[in-house]
Amino acid sequence: MLMPKKTRFRKVQRGTRAGRPKEGASRVIFGEFGLQATEPAWLTSQQIEAARVVMSRKMKKVGKVLLRRFPDKPVTKKPAETRMGKGKGGVEQWVAVIRTGAVIFEIEGTDATTAHDVLRSAQYKLPMRTKIIAKEMVVHDQERA
């Protein structure tokens, strides 16, 4: 299960999922194809691991799966049938906060049809809507002196 080795605080407040991700987080940077979120959500470490396992099995040792979001937020829960008060509950799971437009997974080293099939199978494991995107080909013009 994915979780950070060390955190500054044991328990954190809920926070918000609204807003846009940072500029670099919404583009495919490291791989060739990516899976981009089209709505905000919390991804648990189990959901991330399930999607990663499906993708690595479908790729069959060809190419590489890159994880762009890591579950670094602890979610607490009080035990069932517990009275009010007596502090915050214990850490139940770890989640990654996914904002609209954030790239979750990237793939490199495969052709477009294989990458599309692999990312399509990962979409079924995630609790939100996503879309498959390709890396933007940026052409730099060089001026000659």
Average predicted confidence as pLDDT: 89
CATH homologous superfamily descriptor of the domain at 27-79 and 88-134: Ribosomal protein L16/L10
Give, in order, the helices and strands: EEHEEEEHE
- Sum up the overall morphology in one term: elongated
What fraction of the residues are assigned to beta strands by DSSP?
Answer: 25-35%
Give the helix/strand class.
alpha+beta
The CATH architecture category of the domain at 27-79 and 88-134 equals: Alpha-Beta Complex
Report the helical percentage.
10-25%
- Please, how many helices? 2
Q: Could you write a compact summary of the structure shown?
A:
The chain has helices at 45-59, 112-123; strands spanning 33-37, 41-44, 64-67, 73-77, 90-98, 103-108, 130-134. The chain is an alpha+beta fold and 145 residues long.
Describe this entry's structure for a reader:
By secondary structure, the chain is an alpha+beta fold. It has a domain of 100 residues: Ribosomal protein L16/L10 (Aldehyde Oxidoreductase, domain 3). The chain contains two helices and seven strands; from the N terminus they run ββαββββαβ. The strands form two sheets. It has a four-stranded antiparallel beta sheet, covered by helices on one side. Helix 1 packs antiparallel against helix 2. It is elongated, with a radius of gyration of 18 Å. The chain starts with 32 loop residues before the first strand and ends in an 11-residue tail after the last strand.
Secondary structure blueprint with pairings:
Elements: E1 33-37, E2 41-44, H1 45-59, E3 64-67, E4 73-77, E5 90-98, E6 103-108, H2 112-123, E7 130-134
Antiparallel strand pairs: 1-6, 1-7, 2-5, 3-6, 4-5
